[in-house]
Design goal:
The chain is mainly alpha-helical. The chain has helices at residues 9-22, 25-34, 39-70, 78-105, 117-149, 155-160, 162-170, 177-202, 207-233, 237-290.
Length: 291
């Protein structure tokens, strides 16, 4: 077996696996400490993970199989492939988000009352994606790297993963941070998009659902272009800046809509609730003055 794997290759794979596993844990811990973490918060994280699994890993992938059977050359045409993939990801994941929130909005429980649960949903959606698609994948690479170094890996599997082994061997630890950074971007996006679609459902602003699809498309398409850009020029800094801009835009819009439709509404409700008390105090003062 032509073993070109460095001793550091499995450690790099494990490095990525651990970091991407931690990514969704960090915002969860933050909200446990800063905000009141309730039973429904944990339920929403689970609902987010389940919705991603159904919408992306089952429904979307089933459609991909059918489309690639009908148009087998699509996978070999770079720009149409990235355009198709980014659009389908946005369509299925945001529609899954939309349907889930519509169901929750019609439920009789307390989940729909707490707007923070949109954030917990986003942690679950983006978190399970990071764990299933990256963390577990790189942990598998770690196992196979160890076996390849010990010459206990069969030739067929070695040839299948040879390019992975070579990349892990050649890339520095800083270079291996790119998939971690990509998952940070993705989790951030899913949290912000969940807020946008949640507000769209709860405030009957359906156009926010279409905004989320557009933002999802732009983010995924930029990531795809980043991979292609790396292939041609060995440098993806510019494209990752573009992706960051997309997620920053999503964050800005999420904050904007949250302030407009949730914070302002809460202030109005609090002001209205305090009006009777103010009136009562004024009546008491007037009686005392008359007395």
């Amino acid at each position: 077996m032509d073993n070109q794997i460095s001793e550091s290759a499995p450690n790099k794979a494990l490095f990525v696996a651990i970091l991407t596993f931690i990514i969704p844990i960090i915002p969860t811990i933050y909200f446990i400490i800063v905000k009141k973490f309730e039973k429904t918060s944990l339920i929403m994280i689970g609902i987010g993970a389940l919705t991603f699994f159904i919408s992306a890993l089952i429904l979307e992938r089933t459609i991909h199989i059918l489309v690639f059977l009908i148009f087998p050359q699509l996978q070999n045409t770079i720009w149409p492939y990235y355009t198709y993939g980014a659009f389908m990801a946005g369509l299925f994941e945001e529609t899954g988000r939309l349907i889930t929130f519509i169901i929750l909005s019609k439920s009789q429980g307390n989940i729909k009352i707490n707007n923070l649960n949109s954030i917990y949903y986003g942690i679950g959606h983006g978190g399970i994606e990071a764990i299933l698609l990256v963390s577990i994948t790189y942990f598998v690479y770690y196992i196979y790297c160890k076996r390849a170094i010990k010459n206990t890996l069969d030739q067929k599997t070695f040839e299948l993963l040879k390019n992975v082994f070579i990349n892990l061997s050649r890339n520095s630890y800083s270079r291996m941070l790119y998939p971690v950074y990509e998952r940070i971007i993705a989790v951030n996006y899913h949290i912000c998009a969940s807020v946008i679609v949640w507000i769209g459902v709860m405030k009957n602003k359906i156009y926010l659902y279409f905004i989320a699809i557009l933002l999802h498309f732009l983010t995924d398409f930029s990531l795809g272009v980043g991979i292609e850009f790396q292939y041609y020029s060995k440098s993806i800094s510019l494209l990752y800046i573009i992706v960051s801009d997309m997620t920053i835009l999503t964050l800005i819009l999420a904050i904007k809509f949250w302030i407009k439709y949730i914070d302002n509404e809460s202030k109005e409700i609090n002001n209205n609730e305090s009006l009777p008390l103010i009136c009562e105090n004024n009546e008491i003062e007037n009686k005392n003055t008359e007395g």
